[in-house]
Amino acid sequence: VVNALSSKLGLRIWRDNKEHYIEFAHGDAVAPLKVVGDAPGRRGTEVTFLASTETFKNIEYDFATLEHRLRELAFLNSGVNIVLSDMRHAVEKREEMHYSGGVEEFVKYLDRNKKAIVPAPIMVRSEANGIGVEAALWWNDSYHENVLCFTNNIPQRDGGTHLAGFRGALTRQVNGYAEANAKKEKIALTGDDCREGLTAVLSVKVPDPKFSSTT
C-alpha cells in the first residue's frame, strides 16, 4: 500500500550477509532487486518513501504521529529495532525504539505516570492452531479502563471479538477467584468492577483475519 501511494520508494534489505536494494517509482520497479554490497551479520530492512502528490493534497509528515505508530509496532514485535529519522531540517531528529519486554513493557509505558496497585503486570501468552495471543494486564489507582487491541499489529480502536472474549474471560476468572476465596460472602462482580483502573494490551496474530472495517 505504501508503495502504491508513493511517488518514490526505496527498499534496502540486509540478509544472508549481503545488502540488497530495489527502487520503485509510482508503484513500479525501476530495476530488479540487486545485491549492492556485503553486510556480514547484519539483518533488517530500511524503507525510504515519498508520498505521491497525485494522491495526497498534504504530504507534510508529522513526526509525532509516525513515532506513536512505530512505537506501537516496536512494543508488539518484541526484540525488533525501529529507527525513525527526520532529515528535513538542518539537525536530524532521530528516535530509536527497541523493547525486549513486548506487550508487558507496553502497559508499563502506558502507565508510566500512574500509580500501580499490583507490583507487576500479569502476562499471558498462548498459541494454538496457528493463532498466537499475547495479553498484558496492569491495574492502577484510577477509575478508567484503557484496553488496546491489535490483530496482526493493526489496531482495532472499536474492539472486536477478541476484546469481547477477553472481557468475558476476565470477569469469569475474577468472579471465580472471589467465590473460591470468600465462600462466606456472596460476591457478584460486574465486568466494570473487574476492569476499573485496568490498563491492558491484547495482541492477536492470526493467519487470515476478518475485519468488518479498516477505515
User: What's the helix count?
Assistant: 4
Mean pLDDT: 91
Note the overall shape.
Answer: elongated
Question: What Rg is obtained from the alpha carbons, in whole angstroms?
Answer: 22 Å
Helix content: 10-25%
* Total tally of structural domains: 2
Q: How many beta-strand runs?
A: 12
Give me the strand/helix succession.
Answer: EEEEEHEEHEEEEHHE
Amino- and carboxy-terminal Cα gap: 14 Å
Q: What is the CATH class of the largest domain?
A: Alpha Beta
Strand content bin:
35-45%
Mind telling me which CATH architecture of the largest domain this is? 2-Layer Sandwich
CATH topology of the largest domain: Ribosomal Protein S5, domain 2
Q: Which class do the helix and strand fractions yield?
A: alpha+beta
- Major sheet summary line: 5 strands, antiparallel
Task: Enumerate the spans where pLDDT stays under 50 for 5 or more consecutive residues.
Answer: none
Describe how the helices and strands are arranged:
Blueprint (H helix, E strand, L loop, with lengths): L5 E10 L2 E8 L2 E2 L4 E5 L5 E8 L11 H14 L4 E6 L6 E6 L3 H9 L11 E7 L2 E9 L6 E6 L2 E2 L5 H21 L9 H5 L2 E8 L10
Parallel strand pairs: 10-12
Antiparallel strand pairs: 1-2, 1-5, 2-3, 2-4, 6-7, 8-9, 9-12, 10-11
